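Data card: per-record layout.
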Amino acid sequence: MYVNINNVKYNIYNTKYLYVNKLENNNLNKICNMIFLEELSLLNTNIYDIPIDIFNLYKLRELYMRRNFIMIIPKNIINLHNLRILDLGNNKFSSFPKEVCYMDFLQRLILDNNTIQYIPPEIKNMTNLLELNLNNNLLQTLPQEICLLKNIEVLWLYYNKLSNIPNNLIDIKNSLIIDETSYNINNISFDNEILIFSNIDTILNNIPILTKEIYIRIKCKHNIRNIPFGCSIFEF
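The structure for this 236-residue chain is written out next.
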């Protein structure tokens, strides 16, 4: 059950799931006292700074703060040892928040639609990460350390400015989905099973031999050559 904190007329401090669509100053104090919260959604609530007291919600497993104006993350966030999903998409991050790199318990990190240009090597510490979404940022390169995320299953990278990706990135997992738009497909030297392209306008040569599925957005202009035997192409 989701509760709108602005309209409640009863004691909600024992609730586990809270969705807030309008935030007032006094509401933050209420939220920070809800010690049993496991899921908190503060979408589009005009937040500029994450209230430090939120990091006392030790039972929190999912935190959604999309479409705000957040630029930095306090170091206290590492106190949320039970947090598994952190969504900070559509905020104002110009750099990858290094603080989250020490949250090795995170499983999903969503940072799409920011202006991030650089991923720090400390990302290697996020060993339990299953999904990393960095769509629509300003990334030009990826650090080699990203290849150490052995448990990652989905890596979203489209609408960036990448010129290349680490050659051993596929060592993470054979079924890794790389959704990227700007790196040169002709330089791919590893074997993906799935390739997804959202915004390409080029000739695709030398598709990895183990590729089984290629997904291409319908609006893309493309010319695919030398398709591996048994590989299927889908438009979306």
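Known properties of this structure: The longest strand covers residues 194-197. Helices lie at 25-32.

See the next section for split statistics.
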